[in-house]
Design goal:
The chain contains 17 helices and 13 strands. It has 395 residues and is α/β, with parallel strands linked by helices. It is globular.
Amino acid sequence: MNRDSEAGKLRHILHVIDALNYGGAQELLVLLAKCSPKNRYRTTICVLQPNPELKAKAEFHGAEVICFNRPRPSILKPHRFFSYFYNNVRDIVSFCRREHVDVIQCHLSDAEFIGILAGHTVKVDRILTTLHDPLILPRRHSHDPRNLLRLLLTSILYKWTHAIIAVSEDLSQKIGKFVYVDPSKIRTIINGIDVDSLRTTPYSKQLATQLGLGPEQKVLLTAARLTLQKGHVYLIDAMARLVKDYPGIRLLLAGEGELKEELISRCASMGVLGHVQFLGGRPDMADILALADIFVLPSLWEGTSIALLEAMAAAKPIVATDIPGSREVLSSPKCGVLVPPGDSSTLAEAISYLFEHPETACEYGRTAGRVAGERFDVRQIITQLEPLWQKQCFP
């Protein structure tokens, strides 16, 4: 059977996303490509902007990846912005017609506007949008005209969607407060991870040596973009307290972002630069996780953190901030330690507590691993998504 005749039997899912760099939404797409049943679905990922770092990984797992490589101009430069917008919509419409796309599922801000409009134009069977960020609107002044315009356009676009997927219950509840939308369209589907691969990743002495980690060192890890949202500055401040009691402590920061130089300067000013390693984006997060004694997520806000779910699957003791997205994930008893966001002193105390009570730390890690397997495996997420991908789910 040739590819065209075989593909004709498959439901063609087109995921549209702003960028395919290292990040939670992007990692989720790679997992959907890996674990979506190949005998029922053809998966294509459309990337609007440059630097698709995860392209090869997604292709390895069976997805076709098309990259438009268009830098995103500011809306304050209307001619360039509308050219970017129009060309992306045009090319998605053309691809949908040529490749017989059945479902468009949008991820992140630009992809939502562009993908929904393209799907409505070409009349695909199903248009879905997934909301990953609990901030429905960018952090601007409440009366900024760009936010008002966004609310108006979003209300119109959501009328054309068949389902709006929120990655946390908190986010589901927020949607209707900002944008008029039919409540029956809103579905909560928490992100998922490949639990089995994380459970079976062994400690690598070779990697530990490459990173300069000794067997007796206490190792903290956080994996997140280096942005204000992720609260790295409070973890760095906590490190200044922790090094006094644990001189050999090391903090591994996996991720890239605009605050990297500022955070390096912060480490220097707090006297902990020699205890902190900036790893950048890593394709081997399962191996990095295996090296960590405690995973820390000091975010100020989250939808559902893929990195947090991965740490749970790896059975790591966890310290996270008490914010809705993380609280929902760690809601089971003895699944992790929650601390107030933006409080470096309490963050340091929680980390120190787990260091000083290793049996408790191990119990928390085991519980987190069990909960991850029960609730957050990506195959369970696909089971929830499949009815939304199918034509019979909606009138």
